[in-house]
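Just wondering, can you check both lines?
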Amino acid sequence: MAELRGNNVIYAPSSLRLPQKLSPHKSTPLWQDSRFHDLVRTDLESMERTIDLDLEEGVARVLLVQSVMGHAQNGHGEFGKAGYVYPDATIPDIIAGAGMDIQRIKAARQQLVDDVYEWVDKALEGSATRLVLRGKPLLGVKFLRHHGIDPEYVLKGMVLAGYMDNFNARMDTIDHFKTTIKGDPLIIGGGETYLVDMNALVTAGLNIPFLEQQRHDEESIQYLRDLGVIVQKSGRGIEPAYIRRKIGPGTSDDLAFIMVGKLYGQQDLELGISAMLGAFVVDAIDTYDKCVSFPVQNGLDERLAEYIQLAWKEEHDQPLVSQEEIRTIIYYSAKSNNPRVSASSSHRRFVQFGGDEQYKPALEAHVYFVMGREPDPFHIGFEGTPSQVFYPRAQKRADHMLLQKAA
């Protein structure tokens, strides 16, 4: 850990804030650490064996390396069982540790993103009727194959998801609403994706947790640029990294998808579901673009949202989605709003089957909820929030949103 103060780097113990029972293992570079490699393989094999994902063949492993990274960084899964945590582990470290080719996996993830971009062009031309490209569902998500969609509203959802994590959009939301539904100060944390030279990061005595967990103001960002940690172009040893700009709870992706569905579903349920699925697709880009062949600052999800807005404006003289719509979705999906919600599923959990009688992915359960059906009980997100608790809270937020819209 370290703190930036002016032009000085103040060092703190690297084990700061790590669970006491876990041992940060840093004496050997990860590419030489046989224990790390063994844990990566064991953890990946465990998930492949025990987790049922609604994905086409070959996509699961490309996604799961990111889940293994989360386990390594936080001491979960097989890493926790062994009592080890690797806070500096990156997705390329995991890929190498699993014995896979880093560039091939990056290319596979890049292709998933590129397919979405290609589909967007078809949607803008009016030739897309399903979330399918060349006979395969986008992102390899089988569930998407079966839905007829309205392409305009899919694009709306894509734009909303692309801006949902945008730091400036979140700060604009705070400035506009100022308080929660109950009148408490509205607090939303956030950050931005930068291109980071991983070698320069290590040379500076810094690490990934420092970037992700500590608040970085403009002075800190500039200092990281001066150190050569933040760079402008992708290249060898350059990886996208999240850098926190403001401390505080973020937004819930589960809530965001539901609010998008409810917002547009009042006009027509198919439009709401279309927008909801579009939001899901672009949110998935925010997962995959953390390890791709051609990363960009602010992420490929945000770049796609900007592309859609500009293309739509050129054709129709106004952006597809208004600032008011963006603020509305951020506001009603903010974890700190009321009723309080902590659950936020990762892309993996959205496509993971769960429940008993209605064995379906979380995304499909959320679609059922927006359609007015009651999903079979299951647990949502890493926190494991019971759906019986989550959905009534989501409905209260949606009711307030629609009342305000009608006022």
Notes: Residues 190-246 form one domain. The chain has a mean pLDDT of 92. The longest strand covers residues 238-246.
